[in-house]
Write a structure and sequence with these properties.
alpha/beta; Rossmann fold; six-stranded mixed β-sheet; 8 helices; about 30% helix; about 30% strand; binds adenosine-5'-diphosphate; binds magnesium ion; ATP binding; repeat
């Protein structure tokens, strides 16, 4: 059975590591423009599932559909090619490069000097980077500062701006994006999620923080011991219900 109009649909995903069944047959759908949280205890299989969707892990079993068609996501490039971008905890930024340099890493716009010699088109790069950074609503004091000098929230925004460079980007996956940040910086990431949602991006975010999840997410997928314990809408349940699902009704 397939869901009509789902952007992403996973069916019966399974993954084991040696003798450990990390993910035991997980199915869910994501729709365009929604933010969906993945919650659950440590070791519940959250990261393993998102890594199968982002192409970082090969699945043992199951299907992934993208816009209704079967998708072979065998590596991160394949996921990216479809429009699935993943924000890793280290953000994969080059600390000594500035934000435009990071946004365009490996895809730098070139121009020809005297119609001959290809050189970096720094002006175009800055203009385009500025537009993308505006889309994620960050204002950098200056564009030519190495990103290691930026705050955690600004660095995350720079990482997201790079995703938006790909016009295909439709789904952004974040695994514990606020875990290493201070309270104010966490707020910026939540705002960023809302901004992206308003631009019809779909967000799949692993989080431990139910406060945050109820703040910005439309639905919650609760994982327990490698299975889905429940999928709920944040406007229909309270936190206690979600906590019970996480704990297995033993609260
Ligand atoms: N690369 C790996 N090698 C071996 N075991 C792993 C690996 N990744 C995850 N696991 C195991 O799979 C289970 C689920 O882990 P994970 O998906 O990281 O959980 P969560 O993100 O919910 O905390 C755990 O038992 C974990 O130890
Ligand atoms: Mg994890």
């Amino acid at each position: 059975m397939t869901s009509q109009n789902a952007l992403l649909e996973v069916q019966n995903l399974k993954k084991s590591f040696g003798g450990v069944q990390a993910v035991k047959g997980v199915s869910f759908s994501l729709f365009s423009g929604e933010a969906v949280a993945v919650v659950g205890d440590n070791g519940a299989g959250k990261s393993t599932v998102v890594k199968m969707i982002s192409g970082a892990y090969a699945r043992d079993e199951g299907e992934i559909r993208w816009n209704g068609s079967l998708a072979e996501i065998n590596d991160p490039d394949a996921a990216r090619g479809l429009g699935i971008e993943t924000m890793y905890q280290d953000l994969a930024l080059i600390p000594d490069l500035d934000a435009p340099g990071n946004v365009f890493l490996g895809q730098e716009p070139m121009k020809r000097l005297l119609g001959l010699v290809p050189v970096l088109d720094r002006k175009k790069m800055e203009e385009e980077a500025r537009k993308l950074l505006e889309r994620v609503r960050i204002n950098l004091p200056s564009l030519d500062r190495p990103v290691r000098q930026l705050s955690g929230g600004q660095r995350q925004a720079a990482a997201i701006a790079r995703f938006l460079l790909s016009e295909r980007a439709r789904l952004i996956i974040m695994d514990e994006p606020t875990a290493a940040l201070g309270v104010q910086e966490q707020r910026k990431v939540l705002d960023l999620i809302q901004t992206l949602k308003a631009q019809e991006m779909t967000i799949l975010v692993v989080s431990h923080n139910l406060e945050h999840v109820f703040d910005v997410c439309d639905r919650i997928i609760v994982f327990r011991a490698g299975e889905i314990a429940g999928i709920v809408r944040t406007d229909e349940v309270d936190k206690q219900t979600v906590v019970s699902l996480i704990m297995g009704g033993n609260t």
